[in-house]
Specification:
The protein is α+β, with helices and mostly antiparallel strands and 437 residues long. The chain contains twelve helices and 17 strands.
């Protein structure tokens, strides 16, 4: 087939888009600047690298991201295939061995005969049909090129941060204990309990700790969904206790009581040799991270294999420039996918790439668009990022609030969410049956 699409960026969105195009029989030119050049947050040579957490969040259909993942499975998502294959235990969440997950995606992409890979930095918008999936860490040169597509509007920016990772063998299990909140699922989290004095001492040191220099950043905007733990702590002494250190649903087996605060660690690889500190995205200096985080009971002698880092993320003003198929309104041969569009999160990024790949292939093959509605999670994301009535556009995780209501009353939030999910999956199965029939 002579039709070809260029995909720029081999992150989760780019790999998913390339995979869907190839499945449709369309040749793909995948442009990726790794391994010769990496962003400040990337370390691996593999594609679809998980920079922050290794969790793809809830896997339950009463949670919107759980629904989105199930929709993607029905639509033959490569990202979900590799995530399910490399899953590690994390209670009701879908967490993966980050290295094996990325290796799995990379192997599928590199072995596909319809995907040609060019490992070089892109600095100009390619000719022909193109999907730009360069992520929130788009290189400066290419970001400047993208900005020229809509000179009347600036990029929007927000900060993103990654949490530290420690070795399991360095965690003091005489102080910490395994459990999942409310005893839900298996006991997959390491919990480091704090009494009131320990918590207040930790909080005082955290809010006074020295931050890394921010010379590379242009503003002080912080995205609420990935806020540095020290920024959150400065909002008040109890803020962490209602956030990542929430003790509700956990009982310290040493005391038989609920702790004053709890720091949770989640497995980061299949072997269970590495754990990340949940909710501890940070921009503290590395020495300060070691000093302050070692105050956490159980982490007195923690071995840090990766300290938290912070970087600026970039996204475009999508409601003004993109349509519901992620096409540039001013030039529909160009699509954007991933976090650069303002969808937030691994799963959401991959979902946007999936939708871009499906819709681009159908357009090139002369087929009608899929036109997912807001009754589906994947459609709700597309309609959110393309809604011009949104004045102050900010990155958004999938949530039931942006999906079309049921139109009838269901008692109980979980029951209502389950019913929305049931409706969504039924509609997607019907659509797939129509396409196949």
């Amino acid at each position: 087939m002579s039709i070809e699409v260029t995909v720029v960026g081999a992150g989760l969105a780019g790999c998913e888009a390339a995979w869907q195009l190839a499945r449709a029989g369309i040749r793909v030119k995948l442009m990726e600047m790794k391994p010769s050049r990496k962003s400040p947050a990337h370390i691996s040579d593999d594609y679809a690298e998980l920079v922050c957490s290794n969790s793809l969040r809830s896997n339950e259909l009463t949670n919107a991201v759980g629904l989105l993942k199930e929709e993607m499975r029905l639509l033959a998502s490569l990202i979900m295939k590799c995530a399910d294959k490399n899953r590690i235990e994390a209670g009701g969440a879908l967490a993966v061995d980050r290295d094996e997950f990325s290796a799995c995606v990379t192997q599928h992409i590199k072995s596909n005969p319809l995907i040609d890979i060019y490992e070089k930095e892109v600095t100009k918008i390619p000719e022909g049909y193109v999907i730009i999936a360069t992520g929130p860490l788009t290189s400066d040169a290419f970001a400047a090129e993208i900005a020229r597509l809509f000179p009347e509007r600036d990029f929007l920016r927000f900060y993103d941060a990654a949490a530290p990772i420690v070795t399991f063998e360095s965690v003091n299990l005489e102080r910490a204990f395994f459990a999942s909140r409310y005893g839900k699922g298996t006991a997959d989290y390491i919990n480091c309990p704090m009494d009131k004095d320990e918590y207040i001492s930790f909080w005082n040191e955290l809010i006074a700790a020295e931050q890394a220099e921010k010379h590379a950043f242009e503003d002080e905007k912080v995205f609420e969904g990935c806020m540095p733990v020290e920024v959150m702590a400065r909002r008040g002494q109890d803020t962490l206790r209602y956030g990542p250190l929430k003790p509700v649903g956990l009982i310290d087996p040493r005391t038989g009581k609920e702790p004053y605060g709890v720091v949770q660690l989640r497995r980061d690889n299949k072997e269970g040799s590495l754990y990340n500190i949940v909710g501890f995205q940070t921009n503290l200096k590395f020495g300060e991270q070691r000093r302050v985080f070692s105050m956490i009971p159980g982490l007195e002698n923690a071995e840090f294999v990766r300290y938290g880092v912070m970087h600026v993320n970039t996204f475009i003003d999508s409601p003004r420039v993109l349509d519901e198929r992620f096409r540039l309104r001013a030039d529909t041969r160009i699509r954007f996918a991933g976090q650069i569009t303002g969808v937030e999160g691994y799963v959401e990024s991959a979902a946007s790439g999936l939708l871009c790949g499906l819709e681009t292939s159908r357009e090139l093959l002369g087929m009608p668009p899929l036109e997912f509605s807001s009754k589906n999670a994947i459609g709700a994301l597309a309609h959110y990022i393309s809604n011009p009535t949104i004045a102050d556009f900010q990155p958004m995780n999938i949530n039931f609030g942006i999906m079309e209501p049921l139109g009838y009353r269901v008692k109980g939030k979980r029951n209502k969410n389950a019913e929305i999910s049931k409706r969504s999956l039924k509609l997607i199965k019907e659509k797939l049956a129509q396409l196949q029939g």
